[in-house]
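Input (structure):
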C-alpha cells in the first residue's frame, strides 16, 4: 500500500491504552444468497465534470514526518469534575458533512455540534472532521490553525489530490477541516450529485488519511449520513493494515431519504475502490447504480438512527427508501437513539437574540411580550390574544406541507395567525407566498434561512407545527418545547418518541398529535389545541410549563452512545 493513499507513515499511533497492533482486512461481510446474482457492469468511468476537476499535485508523496509548520493539536479539555466521569476514556472521531456554527442546513448540523459537546461530559475525547467549505464564515476560517498537508491517491486512474488540515479547538472539541479548494469551493455544501459524489468520495478517504497523518487513531469512528458512507468501506479495504483500521466504525442514519446514488462507473472512478465492492451486498443497487449509504451500512460495525421508532420504521417498505431489506438483513447491529438539543444554545433565559428572555418562572407573561414583538416585526395584527402557530422547516415533501397547504384557509379564522420560516421546493414557497398575500395580517411567510428569526418564532409562537410524512427524529419540536411552545405533530419517527399527546382526563402530555397522514386529522389536532388554548388557559399554561421542564438535553442519549462505543471494542 503506497503511503500517499492512506496518509499513513512509519510513525506510531498515539494511544492512551496499550500498544496497538495492526489488523488484517476484515472478511467480506456475509451476504444473502439472492444478493449475489448480478455481475457488475464494467463500463468506462465517466470523465470528471469540468468544474470538479482538480489540479495535479506537484508532489505525490506524504511527508514522513509532519512538516515544521505543523502545530500540535491543543489537547481536548477535560471537564473539572472528571473524577466523576465514567471510565475508561473513549476517543471518537466524528466524520460528517455539516456542523453548526460552521455550516448547517438542518438537524445533522445541530447534532454534529451538540453530541460531541455532550460526549465530552461522558469522558469521550472527540475530534470532528469536516470539509473546509468556502462558505464557512470568515470569523471561523480566521481562527483555524494549519495542521499539515499531504497528497492522496483517489481515483481509479491514480490521480492524486491535495489534502490540507486546518484545526480549530472550541469548547473542548477539536475540529479538523479537510481543505481542498476545488472540491469545497461552492457557497453551499450540497449542490448536485455530479459534484457531490466526487466531493464526498474525496472527503471520506481524506478524513481517514488525515487521522493516520495526524497520528490520532480513535477507538471509534462515528460517521454520519451518506456523505460519510464510504468511510466504513475505505476503512476495511484500502486502509486495512494502516493504523486507523484498529478503530471500530459506527454509521448514523439521520435521514435515509438521501443515499448518494450514482452510476457505478462514476463512483468506481472517483472512489478508486476495487471491483469486488461493487456487489449487491455492498455498493451495487439496481442494474447500474452504486449506493454509497448502502455500502457504508454493510461495513459499519454498528448502525444507529436518531429515534427508536424510526429504527423500526426504516425496516418497512414505506419508510425504507428502497433499503428496507438491506436494513432488515443488518438489523442485528441497528439501534435507535433519540436526538437531544444543546440546552445552552437553546435557552430562553440566556438567548441573546430575544428581546424578552424568560424562564419557567415568567414564561406565561414573557411569551406574550415575545409574541407581540414577533407580530410587529412580521406585519401581523398585533394582539397577544391571537393563537400564533409557527412552522420552521425545510420546505420539502418530507415535512407534510401538502397537508398544511390543504387546510390553511380553514385554519385562518379571526383568532389564529400562521408564521412559516423555510426554504425549499418552489411549489411550497410559492403557495406560502400566496397565502401571505391572501391573508395579509394573519399569515407571514418568511421564505429564507435565518437562525435569528427561528429563535424569535420559537419564543413568540404559541404552537409549532411538525406534520411530517416521515421524521427520523426532528429537532424543531424539541426546541419548541424548550421554549414553552406546544408542538402539534404527526405520530411518526422521533416525533412519536418525543411528544406525549395531551390527555384531557389525566391533564398530562406535551402536545397534540395525529396519526394517519390526512389533512383533516391535522386540522383536527390543531383545533384540539385551539380549543384548549381558548377554553381552558390554565391547563394550556400548565402544558407550557411541563414542556419547558421536559428533559430534551443530550445527556441521556450521550450516555447511550457511550454505552454503544463501549460495546465496540477496538481491534488492538
Ligand atoms: P431536518 O434535519 O430534516 O431539516 P430537523 O427538525 O432535524 O429537520 O432540524 C431542523 C433544524 O434546522 C432546526 O434547528 C431548525 O431550527 C433549523 N431550521 C430549519 N429551517 C430553518 C430556517 N429556514 N431558518 C433557520 N433555521 C431553520
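Output (sequence):
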Amino acid at each position: 500500500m503506497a503511503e500517499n493513499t492512506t496518509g499513513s507513515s512509519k510513525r506510531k499511533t498515539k494511544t492512551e491504552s496499550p500498544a496497538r497492533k495492526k489488523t488484517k482486512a476484515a472478511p467480506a461481510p456475509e451476504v444473502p444468497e439472492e444478493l449475489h446474482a448480478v455481475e457488475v457492469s464494467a463500463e468506462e468511468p465517466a470523465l470528471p465534470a469540468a468544474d470538479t476537476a482538480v489540479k495535479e499535485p506537484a508532489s505525490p508523496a506524504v511527508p514522513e514526518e509532519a512538516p515544521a509548520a505543523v502545530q500540535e493539536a491543543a489537547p481536548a479539555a477535560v471537564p473539572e469534575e472528571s473524577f466523576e466521569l465514567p471510565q475508561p476514556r473513549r476517543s471518537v472521531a466524528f466524520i460528517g458533512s455539516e456542523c453548526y456554527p460552521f455550516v448547517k442546513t438542518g438537524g445533522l448540523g445541530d447534532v454534529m455540534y451538540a453530541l460531541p459537546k455532550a460526549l465530552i461530559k461522558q469522558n469521550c475525547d472527540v475530534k470532528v472532521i469536516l470539509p473546509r467549505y468556502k462558505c464557512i464564515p470568515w470569523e471561523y476560517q480566521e481562527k483555524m490553525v494549519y495542521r499539515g498537508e499531504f497528497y492522496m491517491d483517489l481515483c481509479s486512474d491514480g490521480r492524486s489530490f491535495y489534502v490540507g488540515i486546518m484545526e480549530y479547538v472550541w469548547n473542548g472539541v477539536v475540529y479538523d477541516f479537510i481543505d481542498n479548494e476545488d472540491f469545497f469551493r461552492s457557497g453551499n455544501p450540497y449542490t448536485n450529485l455530479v459534484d457531490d459524489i466526487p466531493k464526498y468520495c474525496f472527503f471520506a478517504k481524506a478524513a481517514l488519511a488525515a487521522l493516520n497523518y495526524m497520528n490520532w487513531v480513535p477507538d471509534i469512528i462515528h460517521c454520519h449520513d451518506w456523505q460519510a458512507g464510504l468511510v466504513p468501506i475505505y476503512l476495511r479495504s484500502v486502509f486495512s493494515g494502516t493504523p486507523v483500521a484498529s478503530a471500530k466504525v459506527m454509521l448514523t442514519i439521520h435521514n435515509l431519504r438521501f443515499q448518494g446514488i450514482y452510476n457505478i462507473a462514476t463512483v468506481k472512478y472517483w472512489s478508486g475502490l476495487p471491483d469486488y465492492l461493487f456487489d449487491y451486498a455492498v455498493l451495487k443497487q439496481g442494474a447500474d447504480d452504486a449506493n454509497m449509504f448502502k455500502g457504508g451500512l454493510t461495513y459499519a460495525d454498528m448502525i444507529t438512527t436518531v429515534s427508536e421508532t424510526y429504527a423500526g420504521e426504516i425496516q418497512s417498505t414505506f419508510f425504507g427508501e428502497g433499503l428496507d431489506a438491506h436494513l432488515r438483513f443488518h438489523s442485528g447491529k441497528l439501534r435507535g437513539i433519540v436526538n437531544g438539543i444543546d440546552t445552552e444554545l437553546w435557552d430562553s433565559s440566556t438567548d441573546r437574540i430575544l428581546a424578552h428572555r424568560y424562564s419557567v418562572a415568567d414564561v406565561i407573561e414573557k411569551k406574550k411580550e415575545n409574541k407581540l414583538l414577533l407580530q410587529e416585526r412580521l406585519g401581523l395584527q398585533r394582539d397577544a390574544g391571537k393563537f400564533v402557530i409557527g412552522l420552521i422547516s425545510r420546505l420539502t415533501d418530507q415535512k407534510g406541507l401538502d397537508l398544511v397547504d390543504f387546510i390553511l384557509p380553514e385554519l385562518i379564522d379571526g383568532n389564529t395567525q400562521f408564521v412559516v420560516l423555510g426554504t425549499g421546493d418552489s411549489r411550497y414557497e410559492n403557495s406560502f407566498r400566496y397565502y401571505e398575500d391572501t391573508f395579509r395580517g394573519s399569515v407571514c411567510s418568511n421564505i429564507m434561512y435565518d437562525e435569528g428569526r427561528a429563535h424569535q418564532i420559537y419564543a413568540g409562537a404559541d404552537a409549532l407545527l411538525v406534520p411530517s410524512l416521515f421524521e427520523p427524529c426532528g429537532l424543531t419540536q424539541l426546541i419548541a418545547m424548550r421554549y414553552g411552545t406546544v408542538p402539534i405533530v404527526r405520530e411518526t419517527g422521533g416525533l412519536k418518541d418525543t411528544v406525549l399527546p395531551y390527555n384531557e382526563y389525566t391533564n398530562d402530555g406535551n402536545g397534540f398529535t395525529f396519526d394517519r397522514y390526512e389533512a383533516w386529522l391535522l386540522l383536527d389536532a390543531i383545533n384540539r389545541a385551539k380549543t384548549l388554548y381558548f377554553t381552558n388557559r390554565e391547563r394550556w399554561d400548565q402544558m407550557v410549563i411541563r414542556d419547558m421542564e421536559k428533559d430534551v438535553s443530550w445527556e441521556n442519549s450521550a450516555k447511550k452512545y457511550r454505552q454503544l462505543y463501549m460495546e465496540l471494542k477496538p481491534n488492538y
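Notes: The two ends are 20 Å apart (CA to CA). Confidence is low (pLDDT under 50) at residues 10-75.
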